[in-house]
Description:
Layout: H1 3-27, H2 35-40, H3 43-49, E1 55-56, E2 61-62, H4 71-83, H5 89-96, H6 100-111, H7 132-138, H8 157-169, H9 175-181, H10 189-197, H11 212-215
Antiparallel strand pairs: 1-2
Amino acid sequence: MGSSFRVGVVSVTLACAALACGAARAQGAPLKGNAEHGKEISYTCLGCHGIKGYRNAYPNYSVPKLEGQHPEYLVAALQEYRSGDRSHTTMHSQASSLSDQDMADIAAYFAGKPLEATAVPASAHTPPTAAAVCVACHGANGIGIVPQYPTLAGQHPDYLARAIDEYRTGARKNPVMAGMAAQVKPSDIDQVANYYGSLEPSLHTVERPITVFATNH
């Protein structure tokens, strides 16, 4: 990689580290999730997130894979949907009915065993120059460097592109990500999304259990 790429990564890494420390101090100890209870109360979540290839209708993009994600990040995302910091009517409605403990339980169920970086050195992954601002927090291998940062490896590229665009336009109100996403040119968004979407080990879809009702349709 060129020196400008490395300098950009170093500077953003320092910013990410400072933000991670600040977030940890602000949030305190996270609630411990109960995956069994999370499974019991996740039936509505599985209606979208438990079907491989399921897509959001308006606008049209893939519903994100959640298995292997950091549960701490999933909780943070649910809290942002509940507060309105993320604009999505259905997700706001679902999250508004959940307590913080419910969120922790659902996150534990969907995350399963969070992905970990493989023994392959980061240098073996060659991210595009446009992803320099992303690598510092999400890693060259797509694994979030701290639990509060999402893992991107193997995520649907069109969902990643949608997320970047929402941070750029303010549909997701996160000042940190707004600043980072603003550095990605619109013409480079698909390149960044396709790179992270191609990485292994990959996130997966938690498939909803087959029931007698499902087998009759």
